[in-house]
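>> Question from a student workshop board

For tomorrow's exercise we were told to take the sequence and the ligand below, predict the bound structure, and bring the output to class. My setup keeps failing. Could a helper post the expected result so I can at least see what it should look like? The ligand is alpha-D-glucopyranose.
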Amino acid sequence: MKKIIAFALLINVLLITQTTCRGGASTKNENTPVVWNTLEELVAQMTLAEKVGQMTQAERSNVSAGNITKYALGSVLSGGGSTPLQNSPLGWINMINGFTEASLKTRLGIPVVYGLDAVHGHNNLLNAIILPHNVGLGAIAAGNRERGAEAAYTAGRITAEEMLAAGVRWTFAPVLGVAEDVRWGRTYESYSENVEIVTVMGASAVKGLQENGVAACIKHYLGEGQTTDGRNQGNAVLDRAGIERILPPYKAAIEAGAMSLMPSFSSVNGIKMHEHKELLTDILKNEMGFEGFVISDWAAVEQLSGGGYKTQIANAINAGIDMVMATNGQDKWVSFTSNLQNLVKEGKVPMSRVDDAVIRILRFKQKFGFFDTPIIAKPGEIGSDKNRRDARSLVSDSLVLLRNENNVMTKLPSFKNILVTGQGANDIGMQCGGWTITWQGGTGPITKGTTILEGIRNAVDGKAVISYAADGKTTGNFDAVIAVIGENPYAETEGDRSTGIGFRQRDAEMLKNVYSLKRPVIVIMLSGRPMTIGDEYKNWDAFIAAWLPGTEGGGIADVLFTERDFTGRTPYTWRKSINGEILYPFGFGLRK
Ligand code: GLC
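>> Workshop helper replied:
Here is what the output should look like for this input. Compare the format with yours to find the bug.
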């Protein structure tokens, strides 16, 4: 059935693409119609100001509809957690259509494109389905590559459906970084330390998004997972072989149709990626034949060499950046437009470089139907039963059983008196992790979902007594304890750790209380990466890595209390301490 749906959607996308290939005409402004049949003809009629406008992206909070018309801006974005006042599909549609209508009033009527980080569902949208972060999807692939690819596609499809319901048609995803040091705060955004897994998953994610109507933006090119000590935005020392080794995910994603790419904040051999001409132009555009456009990361141009914003802009654009995410205030994107125009007039940025950037941006807008269907008229539905079921199944498939002493996992469904402990057992925010509702995410009931505890209670359905004590302080004759531990939500550098990924104090104390009950302990870990647990596991009868499963926490009980078995495997090497003894090797996982 899925194949037929995909085929129908593909036909639909092709029809959209086909109609946009006829080109367009805008007679909305002045009396001289601007007619064009090819993008080259359109670019040839653009003024320098209009070209530079297309290369400019502003954040929604520091741009107005009037600005978009006046400067002919190419794009607007939401940073993590940046939402319309009414955080509903209707609220998003109204906001985005306001920006789009403003762009259609420009002389050329080139529609603005709205982008955001929908990295595990439309995670800025309240009550949208939040999917497992990539680390969990990578665990599916570590168990079975094909099932992993299907999971990445499904996650992309659900994300696309809930983005379109809110009128958003471009996401800065998937991450194609190959995380090789778990101290990196973005490890959970990567699928795995294994290049083959990242390659298969990234391409499938691109297809899942784009075959269901939204454009992907592959990121963060290149070497973000190879920085010294896993430091976010740090430096990666890579020779040509080292570069070739981590290129396959990008090659496969481009082959799958990705038409936008974001460089990394990090550096390669001391050169910031955002001004790395060899990697951005010589390798990516010339050798690999990337025909899409390169959009900078958040105000990343301001980190470049050169001493001043104008020189930094020249370095970025000449290296191969095509659109700049100029997000540190309205003055930054306004001065970007004036600085770049002056750089062209002064011959410091060739007009040919600007023309190349603009045609890439317009090619993207044409391919994804922005010219033909700039406006999504009305909001759609989110949180459908089917999509929640599909997301829940991904959660089940992502679980990795790392320890199972005395067959406790097969005995669990027969137990009549079970204690559940840990904040994470009753905390949607901990299940979801960063990039959820807000940039950093947060603990507590941050959005609609099913907690692990609710899932357990529903699964046993009165056949067992389920007690809950967040801190583990209780008494009773329990058959077993299910103790949920984990990390607090974080994103990017906030998640960087230097010496280890240890227990939260409240989890360590909870475990001590649980051990004093002297009953079998089944530990479930909610984390973006392998935590460094030393020998603590020896106190546990069973140990399950649940990663960051998202809102559908019921998927955990679906494996604990039914015949469904564990199929996930760890997508990362699991060490007792940073660079220490391996506890569980990459690809390890047990069945019940
Ligand atoms: C962030 C991230 C990038 C994201 C961008 C826009 O700093 O590095 O992944 O797409 O800004 O939110």
